[in-house]
Amino acid sequence: MEDVQEKYLEQKERLLGAIDSAKTILSDLRIFNRDSWVVRYPQLRDQSAEESTPVEVSTSKAPKRKSIRRSLSFADDPTFQTDVVLTPARKGMARSMTLASIADETAEEQSNEEDEDRLVAPSDAADFHVFRLDLKLGSHGSSSSPAALVSQLEKASIANLLDDRIGASMNHINKLRQRVEDKSSKVLVTGDLNAGKSTFVNALLKREVMPVDQQPCTTAFCEVHDAADNDGKEELHILKEGIPYSREDESTYTRADLSELESIVSENENVQQMLKVYLRDARSPTESLLSNGIVDISLIDAPGLNRDSMKTTAVFARQEEIDVVVFVVSAENHFTLSAKEFLWNASNEKAYLFIVVNKYEQIRDKAKCRRLVLEQIKQLSPRTFEDAEDLVHFVDSASAFQKDSQSFENLESSLRSFVLVKRAKSKLTPASTYLTHLLSDVDLLVGANAIVAETELERALEDLNRSRPVLEKMKNGREALDESLEHVEEAGSSRSRMRTKEILNDALVRVGQGKLGVEVSGLNMPSYPGFLGIWEYAREVRKTLLTSVDIAVKLAEDEARKITSTGVDKVFQLGEDHLPEGVERSRRVFMPEAMFSTDKLARKKARRQSGALLAGGVYTLGISLGQRPDMLETTFFDIFDVQHQFRIHFSDKSSEEEGC
Ligand SMILES: Nc1nc2c(ncn2[C@@H]2O[C@H](COP(=O)(O)OP(=O)(O)OP(=O)(O)O)[C@@H](O)[C@H]2O)c(=O)[nH]1
C-alpha cells in the first residue's frame, strides 16, 4: 500500500514539475514568436514511395536506429522545400522525435535503443497533435485548393493562429494542473437492492451514518465527505435539482442535521436526489479512508439497482469524476439481472471494477460460493477477474463493524491502492499524455524553425560577406568619385557655355556684316530683283539672315549635346570604375536628342517609346526666329539700313541665347 502511495506521490510531483516547465516553454515560445521571430509552421510530407523507405543508420556500436525521411515545407512559402530526417528520441527523453536536416543527420549521435521504447510512433511524430492548425480556415474560409490557400496565408497570420493555439494550450495545461493537484476522488458504491451497500459504507466509515434497513431504503445518492471540507461542521446538504452545487453558495442547497438523514432518505421520491453528507473522522490520516493525506475519498452510497434507478446510476458511474465503481453483491443472492446488466456496461466503460461480495459469513459452503461468484465475474468483467485477488473481496460488512476483520482490512487497503492506481490513470495519465504530445509538437516546431533559421543565417552571412568589401570599397572611393563627378560636370558645362558663346557671337557678327550667320549648303542670300521688288527683297534678306541664326543656334545645341554625351559617358565610366561588381547600375538612359526641349508631352512620348528613363527633353528650343512674323515685319528703315536694324535686334537677344 505504501509503495502505491509513494509511487503515486512521486509520479504526481514529477508531473507537476513537467507541467510547470511546459508552461514556461510555452510562454517563452509565445514571447519569442511575438517579439523575435515569426514562428513558421512546418508541413511534413511523405516523399515518393521509393525515397521514403526508412533509413537505417548504423555504427559499430549501435546496429539499429530507424529514421524516416520527410519533405519539409512551409504553408506560407511554397518555394522553400528541403528534405529532413525524423529520428526517434532516446528512452527517458521527453522529446519523441528529433528533426534534423539531411546534412546534420549523419553527424547525429547513435543510440542502441529499440523502437519499442519510443513514446510516439515515428509516423505520428511527423504530425502535430496540439498545435495542428486547420489552415483551411484561412482568412476566407472557403478555399480548398492548396495553392489558393497558400496565397491567402501570410507568415504573420499563421503565427497569429499559432499564438492562439499556444494560448489555448496554456489554459488547458492550467486545468490539467488543477486536476493533477486535486486530491479529491469519488468512489461510487452501488449494487443490488438490499445487498448491504449502506452497511458496507458504514463499515468503511467505522460509524453508523447511512440508514440500514431490511427493506430497500436508500433512495438518494448520498455523497460522504470529510467534515474538514465543510469548515469542520457535520452537516447534510440537500442539493437542488438542476442547480450546480457550490458549498459557498447557500442558494444551491438546503442545510439539514445529520440525524435527519434517515427520514430524508426514506421519504425521498426523486430518483436523482443528491445529498452531501459531511462527517467528522476522528481517525488518523493513515486509518481514515475519507481523508488520508494523499487523496480525499468521497464515498457515494447509491440507491439499490432496480428498473427506476438503473439508468440514473449508470449515467452517474460514467461521469469522469467517478474514479472507482464499487459494486456490492450479496453472497446469498449472487448477481441479479439488473446487476449483470449494470456490471457488463460499467466494465466496458471502466474496465476494472471493485467488487464486494457481502454477507459472506452466513454462507455455509464458502468455497462453492466463491467459485460461483468468480465464474460470473469472469463472464461479466474479464479484466476484474484477472485481478480478482485485489479487486474481488468476500466480506461481511455487518460483523466488520462490530469486530476487527482481516478480510475487511485487506479490502480497505486494496480499495485505497485501487483508488490511487485509478487516479494515476484518470488524472495523471491524461496530463502526461497531453504533455508528451505538446512537447513533441514544440520539438517539431523548433526543429523545423531551426532549419529555416540556419538557412536564413547562412544566406545572410553570405550576403554580408559579399557586401562588406563592396561597402568598404565604396566608402573609400566616395570622395574621389565626388571630385571626379564635379570635375566632369564643370568641364562639360563650361565647355558647352564657351562653345555656344563662340558659335552665336560669330553668327551675330557675320549677320551684322550682312553675311549669313553660318555657311550651309542650300541657304543663300536672295538675289536683288531690281528696285521694284525692293520691299519683297528686304523681307527675303531678313528671313534668310534669321534662318541662318536659327541654324547657328541649332549648331550650338548639337555641340552642347555632344559635349554632354561625352560627359555622361564619363560619368558612366566613373560609375563602372567605382562601383564594385554585383552592385546594380542605374537604368537611366541619356538621350541627347531630348535636350533643350520645353515640351512635356513630347518628353512623355519619347519616354514611352524608349521604355527607359530619359534625361533632358525632346527637339530643340525652337526659337525659330525665321518663322516669327514679328521678326519678319519689314520696316522702311530696312531698305536703307538693313545691317543696322539687325544689330539692334540681336545685340538684345544674344545674352538670352547664350543662356540656353
Ligand atoms: N448478516 C449480514 N447482514 C447484512 C450485511 N450487510 C447488510 N446486512 C443486512 O442487510 C440488510 C440490508 O442492508 P442495507 O445496508 O440497508 O442494504 P442496502 O444495499 O444499502 O439497501 P438499499 O440501499 O435499500 O438497497 C440489513 O438488514 C442489514 O442489516 C452483512 O454483511 N451481513
Automatic annotation (TrEMBL):
Its main location: membrane. InterPro entries: Dynamin_N, G_DYNAMIN_dom, Mitofusin_fam, P-loop_NTPase. SUPFAM superfamilies: P-loop containing nucleoside triphosphate hydrolases. It comes from the Eukaryota. Residues 181-449 form the Dynamin-type G domain. The keyword Repeat does not apply. The keyword GTP-binding applies. It is found in: Membrane. Pfam families: Dynamin_N (PF00350). Keywords: Coiled coil, GTP-binding, Hydrolase, Membrane, Nucleotide-binding. This is Dynamin-type G domain-containing protein. It comes from Somion occarium.
